[in-house]
Write a structure and sequence with these properties.
mainly alpha, about 250 residues, 2 domains
């Protein structure tokens, strides 16, 4: 009886919600993948509608599978594994619930923007700048819960699984922020639509930014191009065919 009484009353509500999200977004993402595969054979399936064209459905497929399906799975495992490994009931349940709601809202908004053709044009980082802000809030919410659980833990030993979650949070935070830095063009020059932006590290910007940093991002992509969650997975390649470096005369292509 004493052994049974010592087992914490774990709260799996958020873990279950993320598990359901994983199944839903996985089914949607893979169904879209099947659709665009069929469009390669039967192009008439797009019905000449821009929302059903390959170039809009393809990023929806990749984002739904990589972020909607896989990332929801990572969050689901965290809200389950952390309680079992740290031997403590989920702390800050309101933060966890806010996390799952905001996550699914972001995926829904991302699906709309991708189908509408509103993207940053960077592969695997297509979301517009205003959605990037929501992603950062969502990611920091997870970070708050991670360190709150660590602070409340009853198990002194930090197992390697916990270190992987912490490393995932820190590494992806740096990569996403650096890769997502952009200047909303409408607020600066009053040109284009309000959701348009220019990457601070893209070729079109000042050569002070576009040289070493964009080259570094490209080299990091080559180094980690096969990685996925929970390792470094937000790296993406530059969208152009050239890498620009600084030179006395200005830009030069390599």
């Amino acid at each position: 009886m004493s052994q049974t009484a010592s087992i914490p009353d774990y709260d799996y509500s958020v873990a279950k919600a993320f598990t359901i999200s994983t199944l839903v977004w996985g089914a949607i993402g893979m169904s879209v993948g099947l659709t665009i595969a069929l469009e390669l054979v039967f192009p008439q399936l797009n019905a000449d509608l821009p929302w059903l064209s390959f170039n809009r459905l393809r990023p929806l497929h990749t984002n739904a599978v990589i972020f909607g399906f896989t990332l929801a799975g990572v969050f689901a495992t965290w809200y389950y594994v952390s309680q079992r490994v740290l031997k403590v009931r989920m702390v800050l349940p309101a933060v966890g619930k806010f996390h799952v709601i905001l996550f699914n809202l972001i995926i829904i908004l991302a699906a709309y923007t991708l189908l509408a053709g509103h993207t940053s044009s960077k592969e695997y980082h297509e979301l517009p700048w205003w959605l990037d802000i929501l992603v950062v809030i969502m990611w920091l919410t997870w970070g708050v819960h991670i360190f709150a659980m660590l602070g409340a833990r009853k198990e002194k030993t930090l197992y390697v699984s916990i270190w992987y979650y912490v490393a995932c949070f820190i590494a992806v935070s740096m990569l996403y922020l650096i890769n997502g830095l952009a200047i909303p063009t409408w607020f600066v020059t009053q040109t284009g639509n309000w959701w348009h932006s220019v990457s601070m590290f893209a070729e079109q910007t000042t050569h002070r930014f576009s040289g070493g940093l964009d080259t570094m991002r490209w080299l990091l992509y080559l180094q980690y191009r096969s990685s996925r969650f929970p390792t470094i997975s937000f790296l993406n390649k530059p969208t152009s065919r050239f890498i620009l470096i600084d030179s006395p005369s200005g830009h030069s292509g390599v």
